Structure formats: C-alpha cells, structure tokens
Amino acid sequence: MKFFREFLxxxxxxxxxxxxxxxxxxDEFYNSMLLMPVIGVVIGxxxxxxxxxxxxxxxPELASILMLIFYIWLTGGLHYDxxxxxxxxxxxxxxxxxxxxxMKDSRLGSFGAIGLILLMxxxxxxxxxxxxxxxxxxxxxxxxxxxxxxxxxxxxxSYAEGGGGLGRRITEITKGWHxxxxxxxxxxxxxxxxxILTYAFGITAVLNLIMMADLKRKIGGITGDTIGxxxxxxxxxxxxxxxxxxxxxxxxxxxV
Length: 256
Fold this sequence. Notes:
Blueprint: H1 2-14, H2 26-33, H3 36-55, H4 60-75, H5 80-90, H6 96-104, H7 110-133, H8 137-156, H9 165-173, H10 176-193, H11 195-219, H12 224-247
Helix pairs in contact: 1-2, 3-4, 3-8, 4-7, 5-6, 5-7, 5-12, 7-12, 8-9, 8-10, 8-11, 8-12, 10-11, 11-12
EC number: 2.7.8.26
GO molecular function: adenosylcobinamide-GDP ribazoletransferase activity; cobalamin 5'-phosphate synthase activity
Subcellular location: Cell membrane
C-alpha cells in the first residue's frame, strides 16, 4: 500500500494524469522521487501506444511533431525549465553564486533558449527515425533510462549549496542499492528486447556520469533544475546512441 501510494504521488507530480491524493506528506513526496524509473515505465508505455497510433499516418515528419506535443502534454513540460535554467547558468561562465542566481531567475536567457531548440530538434529527428523505421520499443525504454540517470546522479553527486532544498533531500535518501536494482532491471529488460538497447543504455549511463562530474565541478553538485536537465538530456542521448549503433551496422530489428 505504501509503495502504491508513493507511486501515485509520483505519477501525479511527474505527469498530467488526473490523480488527486489528499494529505501528502513531505516524506511521501520525496520517497516518490525514488520511483522515477518506475514512473518512466508508465510514460514509456503511453509514448509507445501513441507512437503506434501516429505511425499509421504514414507521415513521419507530422508523426514526430505529434510525438513531441504528446510528450510535453503528458509530462507538463516539467523538466524543460530545468534544462533552460541549467544551460543558462553553466554557459554564463560566472562564479558559483552568480550561477545559482541565474538558475533561480524565472526569465529565459539566450543560452537556455538555444539549448531548448537544439533539444527539441534532436528529439524531433529521433522520433521521426524511430517511427519511420518501426523502432517503437525505444519509445518505451527512453523515459525509463532518463529517469534512471536522474537516480544515478542523485546517488553519486552531492547537493549544490544555494540550489534549493530539493537537491539536498534527494541526495540524502538515494542509496547505491537503488541504482543497482534499477541498473540490473533496465539492462535485463533492454537485453530481452534487443541487445543493442543495452549497449545504448550503458553508453548513456556512462555519459551521464561524465555530465554529472562536470556539473559538480562547475556548480558544486545537483539541484532540482539539474535533475530535470539530466532526465531530458539523457533521454535524447539514449535515442541518439540507439540510432547511431543501428546505422553503423550493429542492427536492430523493427519492433512494435
């Protein structure tokens, strides 16, 4: 019952699904964050189903735009603010205190806008290729991988002073065994679908650690914004890795 309630709390926060729960405690909210990869399974299932529907349009360009719109609607575009804020701060080349102020600024800067545009273009291209080549299982695994990478970052990084309370609490409660369980489960599931997905997952996880180390060097750790950045960027990286591995000859059979 406790797991299911925290799972529903996570769904209500990370998606637009009409779930309303009463008397949610702070502990329940933060514990629900540990279920991000599980919530990713639900998001992935919805993306797979929607991708299958729009694939019948036989217009990959239009279908990929609809996929972008559907993902933004489903998640409420929750993490895009973190993407823009983090990119604005990191590329400002300012000191730590100034970067923290930039991340808390609600205004969108030029670097953040460029970052969002490039991310959207990457996802549009990825969705187009996935739908065109019938690789729909990638849509299911993508949000799981992105949210696993957030858990991995929360476990192995530290709280960035001045970044707000969200980053501090999640780094305190995320343990190595969370990472180990999710890592094994995702790798096994990916291997059962197609080994290439496990390779892409492994590469993405390693690149995420590199990004995590770079953010720790520049801003001192993680914040709520960098968690959002991690999810969206690693989702894009995972798709790119799958498509690169596919087109260099490793091969991935069409999946529905």
